[in-house]
Amino acid sequence: xxxxxxxxxxxxxxxxxxxxxxxxxxxxxxxxxxxxxxxxxxxxxxxxxxxxxxxxxxxxxxxxxxxxxxxxxxxxxxxxxxxxxxxxxxxxxxxxxxxxxxxxxxxxxxxxxxxxxxxxxxxxxxxxxxxxxxxxxxxxxxxxxxxxxxxxxxxxxxxxxxxxxxxxxxxxxxxxxxxxxxxxxxxxxxxxxxxxxxxxxxxxxxxxxxxxxxxxxxxxxxxxxxxxxxxxxxxxxxxxxxxxxxxxxxxxxxxxxxxxxxxxxxxxxxxxxxxxxxxxxxxxxxxxxxxxxxxxxxxxx
Length: 301
Prior knowledge:
Structural class: alpha+beta
Order of helices and strands: HHHHHHHHHHEEHHEEEE
Strand content: 15-25%
Number of strands: 6
Strand order of the largest sheet: 2-1-6-5-4-3
């Protein structure tokens, strides 16, 4: 029964941990540690396995996030969440897809670990405040305050992104084509005036170390990459020989379309767009190979 109880809730634990941490690898480590603790517990004293397991996993995730935040202070350039193609806990369903959307995960990075955990447990999984308070070790009134502060912060910083996948895919296709061709006019037409580019190379792949602000700078970056020798240099920085075997296309990450460049079937850069009112407000460019190793091009084995 131990295994049956745990496996019944594994996807829930994985989904909660991923949203709290922003990395699939760390989420898997949390779930594994939760399994070890569950295996060692006196199960006759556990009235509600689901609540017990969520409590363990959430506390482990909060502790890991605090440690990770400290390590990220020495991270090279901007840090972005790890994109995932296989969504945890059935997040392809409409009621959960919104809470694993990439732009939201980026915003959640600006919350404190406790605020983030409360937001995830309440907004994604609808846990009652009384249960969340027990999980984080706070009074219910303080937990409600944390939730309110987190919601207000997310609301202020998050665009009302377009939920229509077909329109988002069309915009992503147009953006990818314009970026690869260095079409400055096409890029400018797609980007909002206040567009930003956030790139994550982790010091392992060539990418801007700071956020680029404004349509001119964002469009100019992609124009420069396509028109200059930067593309070849970028591939070389990823340990790849050149552009002969490179291809590009659209894949799906975190429930939304994303553009990619791949070499020999290995994705070396991924562009995720935050689209609102038909314009691109944010471009998240992930080229750190550690965060792309789980992704595959469509049709790849």
